[in-house]
């Protein structure tokens, strides 16, 4: 981390003024929804930024603004960044979708890359990782590990990205443990350690002995550790400091290769608007080390699942699957198409509760 | 839905824990505002306390020293605010907001090498005899000491304002600083002490997050708790006991709504999520809004 | 003569640019009621603040009972037996009477004991007061009682009173004087500051007159005429406003059943006010502060809207019109509070002129201010009303109270209103400036303008009014011709003594 984090806004402004270097390096901007020190989602994006700096050295200049609220503020920050001469801007949260599209319209020469959204434009690419593949592996392990058969799930916001993860984890937990039950709590925040800890504690008090989280801080890990006998998984980042127990594995976002490739494309003038959705196979999603707290046979079967997802021989959403209300969704052997997954707004059969609308 | 999934004892017990950081921060701000100073930097002082407390606790291995360090850290930051607003007569609102930004940045800088480290254990007190009472024992008498420090602080502040001469002078300074000066009281001195007390309390509240509730250091971990504390002071009409009610209500409904969600309550989650804010505002507003201290937010200079 | 209680010798205090006190010396004997006279800015406030320990003199000495006396702060002064009742009360609205009293004492006993002593003292001096009441809800007279009792509880040897009667009805003044005479008889010396010369003549045995920070004379007020004392204060002959007899014309403004709720918690509701105002007359409205003056001004100026038909201008209801619309019609208002209400303190006089005169003087064209015209209008006000300032570019804040008052009143008069409402036009203004403001109001009326003058200064109202009405708890009494009204009649119109009682003579 750099000194920039002291006053992201102020130094950002300062870095704008020093932008006009003689050799004019390619300028790459990032806006983050949390602090780079969150140990999760934003931390991994910032690792991607550092990978870009390392790959190109003086040929690039990167700037970032952290803790940007989703909404009007994001639009303002984006606009400043574009005015400041950025050539390529990564907007790294779902809620930046409309601000990105709006600002991209005004700056046709600047390239934008929006993470986890679905709105594309001539100068806006979208990219995302198939986290649900990682969720499948987590669900598999969780189904084996639970003794109470209650698995707690901390959701952030009810968006397709999060719902896909819940469905995928549930399907694969159910596959190995038919009695498993999911309790979902929506925290309505990506990052609020106190609230996340609270949610984890509540789930544990209500009998969950495995906690899956789709929020960004490590607070639920700490809560599980305090409870003693609760299994967790690292989210977005490895969170290895909580291993080998309670954190038994993790999903790791690995944005570096993608960021480097896209920066290269801008330098070469070959950048085009694309829709990238890569998973374990392409390396955008990593499965963190499965610790020895997991029995060897479970570990082996989990790794087999991971490998089959990576090779593409198995799809995490393979029929037969019904929707929550019992209507048929996927027939035997049928796999879900990307369009449905991208806009997923329903639970699969067996999950209880409603998705907030 | 499954009511049996909710254990009322655990619910009430976690309510007390959830409310503690807000109680600590808001009781400090209450004193500051009763002295006529509006310090909007609670969030910044909280997070500075969180990181100071964490650093001290990790390095000494003692959570108690951590809390002391947090109180000192928060008070130091508030001194900056006090110097700017009381001696240089800067605008209190702007200075408070700047203090929050500064505190967030400063804490991120200080905490860089402490991300991902575990805090030393701060065990719960199992108070003998009282802790063994069924139902009430686990709810009230099996918490970490800071929960009781928070409660005690509210009672002490209440008694201080109501019964002590120093409390009377503090209220007088906040009510009408010109008159207090005319009677020979030291407005700026009283206010500086109040500001430091507020800073120390906010620091304790922040450290409670980083040492007990979460417990670890993460950038930006207060996530708006300081603003909630500020709001509760206003909604509690600057009265300590009402503040306690507000904080418990807020903490309680926060915990309750998560419990209801987990238990599969059929109420839309959006309503549950906004319920802590709505419930707190509704109750405290219904209890008749009080009057703000007369000189709140105004700069004082003896020559005027 | 006995040893003096307090002796001042050569007190000098200078502030940057102004000498507030220069070589001031005089003595006060035990039990003496001593008047301190002077215009605004003569240095009276600085002098009493020095005695009370709020200001440190640059040079000079004080002795109290023969011992050197140099209080470092008010606490020290109180400990030595010096107490003070402030002009603008040093009270805390949100606290109760007992708490307010405790704050003014050095080692206050517990609240319960204070309450008992308050009852005892208030009974002894005929100043009834409930110790548990919240001060913000008290009338001005009651608030003053709080201040006085706070002083009396400390058995002061010297009681300083700064303009104590400005907020009292004549009956309340009588009671206050009885209390003060009783105190004096018991041996307490009183330093009495006022510019109401008749009061001083009735109460004081000695007077020291200050002008520009210096003692310019002493006299026995009981044997000196008010006019002589005034000339001593001002340093020149005083002009008494001339009043030309004039016929009154048709009705321009009529209030019909004007009622309005109190705009805030410590405000007053207006109750069924009906009156008609004719062209060319001066209607004086008296009343103790806080009886609806501010609310009445707001209802007249348009700051507070009222129900249709309550405020009528030349037969049309203007109840719903805002201030600018009313200005356009010819109804102008000069509110009481100069700083912040009548004028924006940090803006220049030109800008302040623009604020109210744009509509009538056409200082703006299509939304753009014509600054040249605005400046010449401000200059005109300054020269016509003898406002002492280097020029219209100066901030309103830089003017002394009297000068700014002349400016804000002059600003409205220069706009040739058909109806002019003024509230406390000479409050805190020195005698000569006050006289010129009053003269200007009379001249305006002579030209046919209807002037409504709201004031707490009864002498002023008697001097300029054709008719007099009193505001009491939001109600307006029926107007009576001013000529021939006695002080007692006025007092009763103002609501009598507000349940004060006269000191028990036997106590």
Automatic annotation (TrEMBL), chain A:
A cellular component annotation (GO) from this entry: plasma membrane
Membrane-traversing stretches: none
Signal peptide: 1-22
Keywords: Signal, Sugar transport, Transport
The ABC transporter substrate-binding protein PnrA-like domain, residue ranges: 26-295
Transport among keywords: yes
Keyword Transmembrane helix applies: no
Top-rank taxon, per record: Bacteria
Pfam assignment, any one: Bmp
InterPro entries linked to this entry: ABC-Purine-Binding, PnrA-like
Protein name: Simple sugar transport system substrate-binding protein
TrEMBL record, chain B:
Segments crossing the lipid bilayer: 6-25, 37-58, 64-84, 96-115, 135-161, 192-211, 217-236, 243-260
Single GO term (MF): transmembrane transporter activity
Coiled coil: none
Keyword Membrane carried by entry: yes
GO cellular component labels: plasma membrane
Pfam families referenced in this protein's UniProt entry, alphabetically: BPD_transp_2
Keywords (A to Z) from UniProt: Cell membrane, Membrane, Transmembrane, Transmembrane helix
Membrane topology term: Multi-pass membrane protein
Top-level division of the source organism's lineage: Bacteria
Gene3D superfamilies assigned: ABC transporter involved in vitamin B12 uptake, BtuC
Keyword Membrane tagged: yes
Intracellular or extracellular location(s): Cell membrane
Name listed for the protein in its UniProt record: Nucleoside ABC transporter membrane protein
Organism listed in the record: Yoonia maritima
Automatic annotation (TrEMBL), chain C:
MF terms (GO), sorted A to Z: ATP binding; ATP hydrolysis activity
Record PROSITE patterns: ABC_TRANSPORTER_1, ABC_TRANSPORTER_2
ATP-binding found in the keyword field: yes
Presence of the UniProt keyword Membrane in the record: yes
Signal peptide positions on this chain: none
InterPro entries: AAA+_ATPase, ABC_carbohydrate_import_ATPase, ABC_transporter-like_ATP-bd, ABC_transporter-like_CS, P-loop_NTPase
Domain ABC transporter, first and last residues per copy: 6-237, 253-498
Name this protein carries in UniProt: Simple sugar transport system ATP-binding protein
